[in-house]
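Box 4.2: Ligand-aware structure prediction
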Amino acid sequence: MKKRLAKVTGIALVAAMVIGLAACGSSNDGAANDAAASAGAEAAGEIKLAEDGKLHMATNAAFPPYEMTTDDGGYTGIDVEIATAIADKLGLELVVDDMDFSATIAAVQSGKSDMVMAGMTVLPEREENINFTIPYQNAVQVVIVPEDSDIQTIDDLANDKMIGCQEGTTGYVYCSAPPEEDGYGEDHVLSYTNGAMAVQALIGGKIDAVVIDNQPAKEFVAVNEGLRILDTDFANEDYAIGIAKDNDALLNAVNGALEELIADGTVQSIIDKYITAE
Ligand code: ARG
């Protein structure tokens, strides 16, 4: 199995941002539009929002430490905190729209949610349906196996193993690809509504391995006994925020806010709160 590298779009987008920042903001109506202009967003028409004064974020809050539910029915995690900081900069109130991961892109395309932020990897296939902001986090896909598994490396997955993934994720896309494209074929992959369910299937012996993003993998292994993560990474990826193709004004505004939050260290300090350096 060759390592698959997700397309890196970050550099081009950062360059576009710098040009955007250099351009003068034109005057717009509405708090979000004003805030966007002062956040350095390039004028690209009016920002469209699902609801006035709110920033609706489509996510799947079963993906610790990026998004998860709290005991009192709220939401927390790296993405939720970064999104809150972005909303603050734009003078908006963040609303979390929790749904299946596989429904998030359609929610943004239909305008029911304003953006998807869900530990979502930038993928060329997804870029056909939504636009992505600059990346805010690098991640890798890893393989979880039972401690006593005979699977020692990624190559062992090709030995007629059954792999579990969260539906609609890059893990599923890579694993279900045909062997010519470095995958294991659809017959060797089962998809689950979320990562925790895939991990339960692994513990129950229904599948041989789970392929999922590295940080959720660590959290699942920490709370379930008898599992381990293979040393070799499966694929290298960038997470970014997805926004509807017809909402360039919002894309520019969110990019402007995100750029500032990266530059002033806010994004890193949020990440550091949830992920301790190894
Ligand atoms: N990074 C992977 C992808 O983009 C998995 C993301 C899953 N996120 C979630 N909130 N469940 O496909």
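In the box above, the bound molecule is arginine. DSSP finds ten helices and 15 strands in the chain.
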